[in-house]
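Narrative of activities, Objective 1.

The group set out to show that a structural description can be obtained from nothing but a protein's sequence at a throughput compatible with the screening campaign. Below is one input-output pair from the validation batch, recorded exactly as produced.
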Amino acid sequence: MTTAAITADRLSLAFGDVRAVNGLSLDVRPGEVFGLLGHNGAGKTTTVRLLNGLLRPDEGGATVLGHDPWREGPALRKRAGVLTEVAALDGRLTAREILTFHGRLYDIEQLARRVDEMLGLFGLTSERDKQVGGFSKGMRQRLALSRAFLNDPEVLFLDEPVAALDPVAARQVHELILAHVRGRGRTVLLCTHNLVEAERLCDRVAVLESGKVLVEGEPSALLEDLDAPREVVFELHPEDTASAIAALPEARPDGPTHLRLPRLRREAIPQLIHRLSAAGVRIFQVTRVEPTLEEIYFGLHSDEAPRNMGDVDAAISGARPAVAP
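Output recorded for this entry:
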């Protein structure tokens, strides 16, 4: 059995009356990209802070690369890379100075070469000797990413990695994330509410709500387990399209020979076929279109409006949780 790279066992933490993480359990395998999905305030960032030993849990525990994050935080952080939700970058320093300072904390060999390599990888070579205070938001994000990759981490925590990046830069970051894990045994924990990003990158995902895991698994397996509504496409004889539309007024035409019906469950299909057959419609093929991860996510949250997290922010800013040295 492969030892998990990251485990969380009933992990919980409250800020005052607000429970940010609530009995959360995870097992993340070595060499996979694991996604934590949820809207702002679902508990993603607090979970990452707990897994890095920056916050101490009220209950439960965790291990990352065999380390207890709270008791062995310094040893763990030498083997990990972290992109925080808001990167702390001293605007008075240059990009090269920030990476050099950070690299010295890790005792990185041939540091100057590694710094230049990261600056080139993230398109910052021409900006390397400029003060970061003058950088755009996208440039600061790329610098923060280069810092997270600097020590070639065994486990990489990424909190909204493509925030503020244009589509080209975002795709490049996605390719770097995948290159980091492919065949190298590295692990990525990706926090995002960008469901397209999660679907493209993640081997498995966990959907969080109020600090709890609502559902977890491979995206394709979640589709089957949840039996989420599918779009259904009927391919018909072209002479029968008008009759089909009359029999199924809820459908929408898609070209001369196809009808589409959104958000149907499997058990509804035989009834629709019967209605079409009764109208004399000749059906050549029926196809169920797989839903996206986005449809699954919003299906899980269909009864809940996005929450106002102002109370959470106030609770966090007013609380003083223990922070590891």
